[in-house]
Specification:
The complex is a heterodimer of chains A (79) and B (287). Chain A is of the alpha+beta class and 79 residues long. In chain A, 29% of the residues lie in helices and 32% in strands. Chain B is α+β, with helices and mostly antiparallel strands and 287 residues long. Classes of the chains: A alpha+beta (79), B alpha+beta (287).
């Protein structure tokens, strides 16, 4: 899958994870795809729900088998 | 003060203090909610008749310590005028505790406050051979610790997957805390093992395609005990999908406790003695 932007939030903790993600998405145009690398545990448990609540659509999730996941998110994809 | 009936006072929420002729007065709360008007009344009474402070109890209640026996009637009267009732102690159905539930909390799956009101209306203060506690928590995060109670109620979502809506993105796999879901993106297949499901609704809340839907329900635990001895409430029943059935289950459970418990015997002990399956069979008759 090809993304327009990429963000790594594995070096921050909640709630900074979602804040960084939100700022990144705000700087993108509707319909663009963001690739997000995030940690297992709390981030992968909570970020998908927050993205949905904000109207962004997850289109793919991959377990990287190294303690991180990669999400592909379409900006405003649920609006 | 020889005419004090301690049993009657205890019934009305007066806890005898170490200090002679003083009581800590327990107030009635349901689900931990107190209005600003009630707080004002409690403030005034604690300043006028107590020592100007209150104690927050371990079960979401309020007590006003240092009420002198000579002031009991005046305190009751002034509290009642401000919309505050006495709480219960002793061998009764105690304060019904609840988290804020789905009306306030983003994680809430049931309206815990409404349910606490309903339970108080139906069962509050009922007398038993021993105290009996009900606690209601809105979701499997279990902030209100349902399993500590003789009867615990926990909100849940009974998930249902709609294959036609699914985009097989795979997000439900890592968000599920119990690993109940597996997805094969290549073959576009999904497997859900309901026995592993904790009814938390994470799949439902995260799904970008609304492929996961669900109906809210109640997970009941029985026989929780957190005193000198400790027992964690057990889940011996399937998730209950409507409030009417839930109340039937509670009624059967309370009737069972009323008719089988020995004096001073907590529910966990009654169940261990009489048999968990005896209660389970009685409940299954009405499910």
């Amino acid at each position: 899958m090809k993304a327009d932007n990429i963000i790594d939030i594995t070096n921050v903790v909640c709630p900074v994870t979602f804040v960084k993600l939100k700022i990144e998405l705000e700087n993108m145009k509707t319909g663009k795809i963001l690739e997000v690398i995030l940690n297992e545990g709390e981030p992968i448990a909570n970020i998908p729900r927050s993205l949905k609540d904000e109207g962004h659509k997850i289109i793919d999730v991959t377990n990287n088998d190294n303690g991180t996941y990669t999400l592909f998110v379409k900006k405003d994809g649920l609006v | 003060m020889t005419d004090i009936n301690f049993a009657e006072l205890k019934k009305g929420g007066f806890m005898k203090q170490k200090q002679k002729d003083y009581f800590s007065m327990r107030l009635k709360t349901i689900g931990g909610q107190v209005t600003a008007e009630q707080l004002e009344t409690i403030q005034l009474v604690s300043q006028k008749y107590g020592k100007g402070y209150i104690h927050l109890t371990s079960r979401q209640g309020i007590e006003i310590p240092f009420i002198g026996t000579e002031n009991i009637d005046a305190v009751k009267r002034e509290l009642a005028a401000g919309g505050v009732q006495n709480g219960v102690c002793g061998a009764r159905l105690r304060t019904i505790t609840a988290c804020q539930g789905s009306v306030i909390c983003p994680s809430g799956l049931i309206d815990t406050q409404q349910l606490a009101e309903d339970c108080d209306h139906r069962y509050g203060g009922r007398e038993f051979p021993c105290k009996f506690k009900i606690g209601i928590t809105g979701c499997p995060n279990n902030c209100l610790k349902a399993e500590e109670n003789d009867l615990g109620i926990k909100g849940g979502i009974i998930p249902q997957w709609n294959a036609e809506k699914c985009i097989f993105c795979g997000v439900c796999v890592p968000v599920c805390p119990t690993k109940a879901i597996t997805v094969d993106k290549d073959t576009h297949t999904l497997a859900f093992i309901e026995e592993k499901c904790c009814y938390c609704g994470a799949c439902f809340k995260s799904c970008p395609a609304s492929a996961w839907g669900g109906q809210s329900g109640y997970v009941v635990s029985l026989g929780g005990l957190y005193g000198k001895q400790i027992a964690i409430g057990k889940h011996i029943l399937p998730i209950i999908s409507n409030a009417e059935t839930l109340h039937k289950v509670i009624t059967v459970t309370l009737d069972f406790f009323a008719s089988h418990a020995k004096q001073g015997e907590r529910f966990a002990k009654t169940l261990d003695r009489v048999g968990w399956n005896t209660l389970k069979a009685a409940i299954e008759e009405i499910l």
